[in-house]
Request: fold
Amino acid sequence: MDYELSVPCLFGLEGLAADELRRLKMENVRAENGRVLFSGNKEDIARANINLRTGERVLLVVGHCNAESFNELFEGVKNMPWEHYIPVDGAFPVKGHSLNSQLHSIPDCQSIVKKAVVERLKMKFKAQWFKETGAKYQIQFAIMNDVAWLYIDTSGAGLHKRGYRPVGNAAPLRETLAAAMVSVARYRGREAVYDPFCGSGTIPIEAALAAMNRAPGLNRRFAADKWIWLKKDLWDTAREEARDREFNGKYEIFGGDIDPECIEIATANAKRAGVEQHITFEVADARSFEHKGPGIIISNPPYGERVMEHREAERLYNQFGKVVKELKDMKMYILSSHTEFERTFGRTADKKRKLYNGMIKCDLYMYNIK
Reply:
């Protein structure tokens, strides 16, 4: 049996996530704003969760319906085949969101969806009460332009939570976005990679995982691990296949930060990720950065919104820009939300790509220095 599945993404990463799914041989892949849809079997649910670098989670699509009124939402949800996925003892809490729709009260929508699912399961299981003592089948709804999409979350914690970063610095970069930056840079482990503003080490760690071709979800668990219709051997097989695809090489990956505490955190995070042997972290001032290429700089300097004052960030960009003018044979991928980044950096980007770090709108500035 094939299922319709949805991978929500940070805005700007849909194409990258779609490419990942195609490389995993998924069927019927199509990217939309904020998500990628695809078709897959039970094995593919496990494979997508374990292997995806840029998607936020893997949602099982139960169905969609018009939702201009609460009655329409109730009847639409009630007609969906919930009994195919949720067993009689399953726990099925409900959460969701609504945008540009007549039904805008989230608590009311949650209540309606819950009642509709209960009525459906009552009818199919010939039961009047559900204790919900079993595994969790988190129901999610997304109502947009009066159309409701209903899902069950197979991932649990978001896929960006790889498990290696229990502690971050003051302004952590989401792991999925760091992986996207590495992907856009087309890093495959051949060149030297530098992050002069490494913070908690997310970019160097994601670069190491990409170089090794190590699945980011290999060492974590997912909500669907506990589902009775997704057997344990299915997950074991997907993890073993992922391990078989790993590379074992020597990589030049460097992370620097002016804050010694950040370097301690980054080093500990790399160790938890199992990539510490591939990364060199050191306390260093980006304003004194020097390297004789070729290589790639992939970095997320402070924006001046949360960590540093705006003008201090501009001074830092200006000083770092003067340093990199002296470099040769270097590609650079710099993520910043600062609207005047190019002016303060002193160099117009060869290309730009719009991305989001959480809710912060950013640009990825791309340079090719000869």
Notes: Residues 12 and 82 are 32 Å apart (CA to CA). The radius of gyration is 23 Å. Residues 106-125 form the longest helix (20 residues). The first strand starts at residue 3 and ends at 8.
